Design the sequence.
């Protein structure tokens, strides 16, 4: 017993030493630091409406903002012999000045625990719900167009499983991640689209550790990835984005890297010098950049930054720190980078959206 | 084998001691003068469609507005004006509202709610908008965990509370949180919510805590903690060093320190909420004390009639002769006028 404790302590020391090495590497590269301004009160909410944990923020082509937030108290209903969970997340729309426009999807069956919102090139709004394990597509008017995955009918009161399975476990899953059984998610985290309208879902927080690809009509095509540390494996694929060439970037948080694949899931490269990536965003335009939010601790209080990266992995610069004040970040779970130098970030632990205006970077 | 038996006995004793329901005690203070008082009837005017549930928290701001934090179908926070007229609800559907425990107002009229159901401390601006949150509601999606019979004794982590109970502030704006039913500690944060330090572990030694249920701060930044199941008030300095114990006023459920040049400490030895008759004769009174622990007087007795106290859970004492008390088992807030000169 004592030996095990010592063994654990030794491992901690080794991990700490490893972390120091990464730190010193980052310092050696002298990453330029962006100056930036931030506003945390530009969203104007009605008096009776409150943001909770902001899981997702995204803009459409008109500059309107969509905020997917965990609020409104998830409720467990007492059924026959089962418990039914509902409520708990809301999708809000604001105009480009931050004025509240409307709520979308009030009381929606799939709104349980918000995780991401994205807007596709046609201004459709996509929501990823970690609690209902669903991906929901709304048209620009806010009506449901397509749903992927199915919400579990009922929940059980149970102790959380501590040992995740290595194979996908969607409802009826065969374990191969292929065919019809592969179209169900377990706590999915994010969604992205390529030029053909194919849909890529990062899946997710649960025992699955994969990317699932669907065609534009929601037909399951293929999935790749298992739990692990090798290239092509994942430990909590937490965010996903595509570039103009259709390459797929996956924030592989638990492995502290962003993995890059082609559209068929073939490994291309990885970006491993941006800390622990929670959320990523790839901008538009002729020269695309990737933004990645780093959170070095689970509270968002000790270590955080957002990195701006070339698509080949070279770090352009970084900005921000951890904390609760303006210009500080509390678990940035989502970044919108439609405009290269005006970003919107949604924070889990600070219950807010910040609008960031970047200045030219300065080398320290 | 004997060791094991002794261990079991010690554990059993510890469990018995840890059960608040079995810990209620008669105050040691004797021959305490009674302070004459009255209850203002029907002070709070509620709209027809608004109901109070358990009166968990009550606090006033500098304008005399009254904030009531209550457990109804949802946990809700209401604001009333200085005449008791309903002003508004704050935080409808808030992610951090699940099971109210305390509300306090700081010197800048920010409103702070402590929710023991979500493990969160929430700061609202005077306008009622969220300014800052500390702690984090656990994500429920890994599966709901059946509540253990006792409160969980989680390893205290800087930003993770376990059923926190109360909050206080010093002149620098530093934030103090009593935490709580699960943890047994007091945590100090700076005004931006950054962890500074903590004190306390579960036990009955000086500096240890067994259900830190309420707290108050004096003008010097000292921290007074209602160590409820240990039947004592413990005083810590601003750096959370142990200073003193006042163990003569029963089990402190609710505490308040009045402002001004001469500060008083109010401590409620509330009748427990389990309705056991044996506590009716030994609890229910509120003590008025000097900050050094000297008992000035007491008032009140247990009961559900007006002017009686039915499990007082929070006291507001912005004016030391005009108190507000919220009560768990009477679903109400009373305005209490003390007549200490009589």
Sequence:
């Amino acid at each position: 017993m004592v030996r095990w404790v010592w063994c654990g302590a030794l491992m901690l020391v080794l991990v700490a030493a490893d972390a120091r090495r990464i730190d010193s590497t980052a310092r050696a590269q002298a990453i330029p630091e962006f100056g930036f301004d931030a506003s945390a009160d530009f969203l104007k909410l009605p008096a009776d409406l409150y943001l909770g944990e902001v899981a997702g923020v995204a803009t459409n082509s008109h500059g309107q903002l969509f905020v997917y937030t965990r609020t409104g108290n998830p409720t467990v209903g007492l059924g026959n012999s089962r418990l039914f969970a509902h409520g708990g997340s809301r999708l809000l729309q604001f105009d480009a000045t931050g004025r509240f426009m409307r709520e979308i999807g009030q009381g929606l069956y799939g709104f349980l625990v918000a995780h991401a919102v994205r807007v596709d090139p046609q201004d459709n709004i996509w929501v990823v719900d970690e609690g209902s394990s669903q991906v929901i597509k709304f048209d620009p008017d806010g009506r449901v167009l397509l749903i992927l995955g199915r919400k579990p009918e009922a929940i059980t009161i149970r102790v959380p499983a501590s040992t995740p399975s290595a194979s996908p476990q969607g409802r009826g899953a065969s374990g191969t991640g292929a065919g019809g059984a592969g179209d169900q998610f377990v706590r999915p985290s994010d969604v992205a689209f390529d030029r053909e309208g194919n849909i890529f879902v990062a899946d997710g927080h649960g025992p699955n550790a994969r990317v699932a690809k669907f065609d534009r009509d929601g037909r399951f095509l293929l999935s790749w990835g298992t739990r692990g540390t090798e290239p092509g494996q994942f430990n909590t694929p937490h965010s996903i984005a595509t570039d103009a060439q259709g390459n797929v970037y996956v924030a592989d948080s638990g492995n502290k890297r962003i993995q890059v694949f082609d559209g068929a899931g073939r490994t291309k490269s990885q970006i491993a010098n941006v800390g622990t990536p929670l959320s990523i965003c790839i901008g538009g335009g002729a020269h695309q950049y990737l933004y990645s939010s780093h959170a070095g601790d689970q509270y968002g209080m000790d270590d955080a930054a957002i990195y701006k990266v070339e698509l080949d992995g070279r770090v352009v610069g970084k900005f921000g720190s951890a904390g609760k004040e303006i210009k500080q970040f509390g678990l940035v779970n989502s970044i919108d980078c439609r405009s290269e130098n005006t970003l919107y970030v949604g924070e889990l632990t600070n219950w807010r959206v910040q609008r960031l205006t970047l200045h030219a970077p300065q080398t320290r | 084998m004997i060791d094991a038996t002794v261990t079991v006995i010690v554990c059993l004793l510890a469990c018995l001691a840890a059960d608040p329901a079995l810990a209620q005690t008669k105050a040691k203070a004797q021959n305490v003068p009674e302070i004459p008082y009255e209850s203002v009837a029907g002070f709070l005017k509620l709209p027809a469609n608004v109901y109070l549930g358990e009166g968990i928290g009550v606090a006033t701001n500098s304008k005399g507005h009254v904030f009531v934090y209550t457990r109804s179908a949802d946990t809700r926070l209401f604001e009333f004006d200085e005449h008791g007229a309903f002003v508004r609800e704050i935080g409808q559907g808030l992610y951090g509202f699940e099971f109210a425990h305390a509300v306090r107002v700081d010197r800048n009229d920010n409103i702070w709610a402590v929710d023991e159901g979500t493990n969160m401390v929430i700061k609202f601006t005077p306008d009622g908008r969220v300014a800052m949150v500390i702690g984090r509601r656990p994500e429920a999606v890994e599966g709901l965990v059946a509540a253990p019979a006792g409160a969980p004794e989680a390893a205290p982590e800087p930003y993770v509370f376990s059923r926190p109970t109360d909050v206080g502030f010093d002149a620098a704006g530093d934030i103090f949180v009593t935490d709580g039913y699960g943890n047994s500690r007091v945590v100090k944060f700076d005004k931006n919510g950054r962890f500074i330090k903590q004190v306390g572990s579960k036990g009955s030694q000086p500096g240890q805590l067994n259900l830190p249920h309420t707290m108050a701060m004096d003008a010097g930044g000292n921290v007074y903690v209602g160590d409820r199941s240990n039947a004592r008030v413990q005083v810590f300095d601003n750096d959370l060093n142990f200073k003193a114990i006042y163990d003569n006023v029963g089990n402190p459920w609710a505490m308040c320190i009045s402002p001004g040049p001469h500060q008083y400490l109010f401590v409620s030895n509330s009748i427990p909420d389990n309705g056991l008759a044996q506590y009716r004769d030994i609890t229910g009174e509120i003590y008025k004390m000097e900050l050094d622990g000297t008992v000035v007087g007491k008032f009140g007795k247990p009961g559900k009639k007006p002017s009686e106290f039915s499990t007082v859970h929070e006291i507001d004492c912005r004016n030391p002769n005009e108190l507000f008390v919220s009560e768990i088992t009477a679903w109400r807030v009373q305005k209490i006028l003390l007549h200490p000169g009589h």
Q: What stands out?
A: Chain B has a mean pLDDT of 90. The longest helix of chain B spans residues 2-18. Chain B has one domain: 35-338. Residues 35-338 of chain B form a domain with the Neuraminidase fold (CATH 2.120.10.30).
